[in-house]
Amino acid sequence: MTLAVLLSGQGGQHPGMFDLTADLPAAQHVFTAAEGVLGADPRELVRAAGPTLHDNRTGQILCCVAALAGWAIVEAARPARVIVAGYSIGDLAAWGCAGRLGAEAVLRLAAARAEAMDEASGEGFGLAGIRGLGLADIRVMAEKHDCFLAIRNAADSAVVGGASRALDALCKEARAAGAQRAVMLPVRTPSHTPLLEVASRRFEDALAREGLRHPPPGAPRLISGLDGAPVFDMRAGLHKLALQISRTIDWAACLEACREYGAQTVLELGPGHALTTMARDAIPEARVHALEEFRSADGAADWIRHS
């Protein structure tokens, strides 16, 4: 059996996001490391809810915590063939799951990434999700409103970044043109657009200061969240990891890479189930679940073992 593990991006943070992992012994080092970066226990922070869950810095760190804590379940049950891919901030978490970076480094870098993005973008920017129109049409509408195509999700689905007012106008036009969905997302930076060019350079400097690990025997295959290509040269992979902050990412290519690798089972780690929905469309022959769809960590592990 081949397992594809998908690491979530921002937007789905919620009070119950650590319900399955909060008490896992194998995940405790992740929560401890996160407390040092966040200044609070991430489990208590999410239970308290509130708008801080969607602050850029907090949200990016929490997504990485969710991915790394969830990986503790996968690691105990995983098959021999595993591929990992991350969406936006999940791309950084994937390096931790693949054994290229330690948990402490991933969380430290998540904070540095968010800080660089906040400094580069300022206030009044964000992202919008559009589904039900062709990518060419979405791109034309985006350019008309001085916005940018940020993420290619599928042939008829994309994320667009830019100024909040422009995105609001773009969503209205997209709905009038027949889009099934065109809404502002709970993300306050224009991720994956040229507006964050400075942030890419700053984050690449932060990556260069971190020590990389050679993947252990049997480590998952890591693919780049920028273009779906396998990461063999770690320095080249780190360059892509920094570049995706300010370049359009091709998530559709990442899902195609999972399919070409022969993924028969797909599991999403992180808050929400947005990647699960996309994977079910892109790899219809696979068994697909989000970790949050299980009632217990043991149930998720059993599903992995027997899929």
Report what the structure shows.
GO terms for molecular function: [acyl-carrier-protein] S-malonyltransferase activity. InterPro entries: Ac_transferase_dom_sf (IPR001227), Acyl_transferase_dom (IPR014043), Acyl_Trfase/lysoPLipase (IPR016035), Mal-CoA-ACP_Trans/PKS_FabD (IPR050858), Malonyl_transacylase_ACP-bd (IPR016036). Pfam families: Acyl_transf_1. This is Acyl transferase domain-containing protein. By secondary structure, the protein is of the alpha/beta class. It folds into two domains: 233 residues, Malonyl-Coenzyme A Acyl Carrier Protein, domain 2 (3-Layer(aba) Sandwich); 60 residues, Alpha-Beta Plaits. 46% of the residues lie in helices and 16% in strands. It is built from twelve helices and ten strands. The strands form two sheets. A five-stranded parallel sheet has the order 7-2-1-9-10. A five-stranded mixed sheet has the order 6-3-5-4-8. A hairpin with a 2-residue loop joins strand 4 and strand 5. Helix 8 runs antiparallel to helix 9. The mean pLDDT is 96.
Structural class call reads alpha/beta
The fraction of residues assigned to DSSP E strands is 15-25%
Largest sheet: 5 strands, parallel
Q: Low-confidence parts lasting 5 or more residues at pLDDT below 50?
A: none
Strand order of the largest sheet: 7-2-1-9-10
Instruction: Estimate the helix proportion, in percent.
Output: 40-55%
> Kindly state the mean pLDDT as a whole number?
96
- Tell me what the CATH architecture of the largest domain is: 3-Layer(aba) Sandwich
CATH topology of the largest domain: Malonyl-Coenzyme A Acyl Carrier Protein, domain 2
Question: Termini separation (Å)?
Answer: 7 Å
Rg, Cα atoms, Å: 18 Å
Secondary structure tally, helices: 12
CATH superfamily of the largest domain: Malonyl-Coenzyme A Acyl Carrier Protein, domain 2
Q: What string, H for helix and E for strand, traces the elements in order? A: EHHHEHHEHEEHEHEHEHEHEH
Q: What is the 3D shape?
A: globular
Beta strand count: 10
CATH class type of the largest domain: Alpha Beta
Kindly give the count of domains.
2
